[in-house]
Amino acid sequence: MPIEHKDIAAIRADYTLGNLSEDNVCPDPMLQFAKWFEEALHAEVVEPNAMTLSTVSAVGFPSSRIVLLKDLKDDGFSFFTNYESRKADEISRNPRVALLFFWPELQRQVRIEGLIERLPAEDSDEYFQSRPLGSQLGAIASPQSTPIPDRLYLEARVAEVEKKYLDKQPVSRPAHWGGYLVRPVAMEFWQGRSSRLHDRLLYTSVSDFWKITRLAP
To answer: Does residue 163 form part of some domain?
Structure first.
């Protein structure tokens, strides 16, 4: 039975877990993010490193998907993917991207806008070697984002790769797979508050410092 529109409209929750003040945040948004990320870990948030990555197509349509943060560096956020995927193609055309972290258990979210670049090959090699064997072989076998006839086709490709690398371990990273680094130019920290009067603090990169601005909810 379809859900009536009025039932969807009635879904709401009041946010009362915390607050966010200019007086108690770090002047550097990367340090503030690291603090919140540590708190998300302690709160046992489900997959706290899951982030929405948004890119833009050649004709201007935004495209979003969940990827996993794999390293938090002093100057940005890194993740790994197939360099021949749709997201990689869009990144090559437009290096301006957005990230979004949502931690409902803490009633928090962080929005990030930044410029993206490939990680050095040695960083991608190091992470690839840390992955489980199944994930390594899957990265080799899957022609990510391209149409395939059915599930059996994918399973057959994986079986073929498993056979090929049976006696060839460690498995070398394929050239079509590797990492990216997103360097932020703006970061917004959002803390849910009661009656939808949420706290929003926006960090904007200005010359050699970060400007902090409070936004209306």
So the answer is: no
Range of the domain at 26: 8-131+174-214
At residue 203, what is the residue type? Y
**What pTM, to 2 d.p., does this model score?**
0.92
Residue 117 is assigned to a structural domain of this protein: yes
Query: How many domains does the chain contain in total?
Result: 1
Contacts of 55-61 spanning 24+ positions with Cβ under 8 A = 55/87, 55/90, 55/91, 55/94, 55/97, 56/90, 56/93, 56/94, 56/96, 57/90, 58/90, 58/93
- Catalytically active residues are 196
What CATH number does residue 194 fall under?
Answer: 2.30.110.10
Predicted pLDDT at 74: 92
Q: Is residue 154 part of a domain?
A: no
190 close to 18: Cβ distance less than 8 angstroms: no
Assigned domain for 73 exists: yes
Mean pLDDT of 27-45: 98
Say whether pLDDT at 130 is over 90. Answer: yes
Taken as a whole, the chain contains a residue count of 217
